[in-house]
Design brief:
An eight-stranded parallel barrel has the order 1-2-3-4-5-6-7-8, surrounded by five helices. It is globular, with a radius of gyration of 16 Å. It is of the alpha/beta class. It has a single domain, classed as TIM Barrel, CATH 3.20.20.70. Helix 1 runs parallel beside helix 2.
């Protein structure tokens, strides 16, 4: 019988920056970061611009040994570009062609915010699960209360056996405490892209996420 599980990750997750364009992906790869997510806001770009960014990000990752570059939301473009991985939200589970992604060997990460969403995402047998927001975040309006570290620890067994990424309001200062909860990776957004010295922040993040 054919497996319905998504292809597992090829390496540890660790420090996981979420960035707005392919130039950031390339920069982070050059600095030694190996797990990166391209998240382009569709409202700010034309379809052709998004396609170009996705292709550039996928190509950049394909040239670096051990790179795990995920494309957020734009799964059709990721599929066409031969992406390593795709990251989707709960609402995407109703519309994305999961069979096509699975058959192509593309890894899948899924966002979750509650135990019920964790159960739903686990049933898809993804490559990893994301839990958040851990802390309040100003980057987008969240209809969910922050999970916090205690709940994160309590929910981790619900995610087993899949790797877990924590996301939401995580600064470099908070990163060690989040990793100490037992997660496999920590996703950050503004901690790198808005840092005064992004390279120093990235190198620090990689170091702090090692455990």
């Amino acid at each position: 019988m054919k497996s319905t599980a998504f292809t597992p990750l090829t390496g540890p997750i660790g420090f996981y920056p979420v960035v707005p364009d392919a130039a950031w992906v390339q920069r982070l790869l050059d600095w030694g970061v190996r797990t990166i997510q391209l998240r382009i806001k569709a409202a700010d770009h034309t379809q052709s611009e998004i396609e170009r960014e996705v292709r550039a990000a996928v190509e950049a990752g394909s040239k670096v040994a051990g790179a795990q570059v995920f494309i957020n939301d734009h799964w059709q473009l990721a599929l066409a570009a031969g992406a390593y991985g795709v990251h989707l939200g709960q609402e995407d589970l109703d519309s994305a062609d999961l069979d096509a992604l699975r058959s192509a060997g593309i890894r899948l990460g899924l966002s979750t915010h509650t135990p019920a969403e964790l159960a739903r995402a686990k049933a898809v047998q993804p490559s990893y699960l994301a839990i958040g927001p851990i802390y309040p975040t100003t980057l987008k309006v969240m209809p969910y209360e922050p999970v916090g570290l205690e709940q994160l620890k309590a929910w981790l067994p619900l995610a087993a056996p899949y790797p877990v990424v924590a996301i939401g309001g995580i600064s470099l200062e908070r990163l060690p405490g989040v990793m100490a909860c037992g997660v496999d990776g920590v996703a950050v957004v503004s901690a790198v892209t808005l840092a005064p010295d992004p390279q120093a922040a990235a190198l620090s993040g990689v170091r702090l996420a090692l455990r």
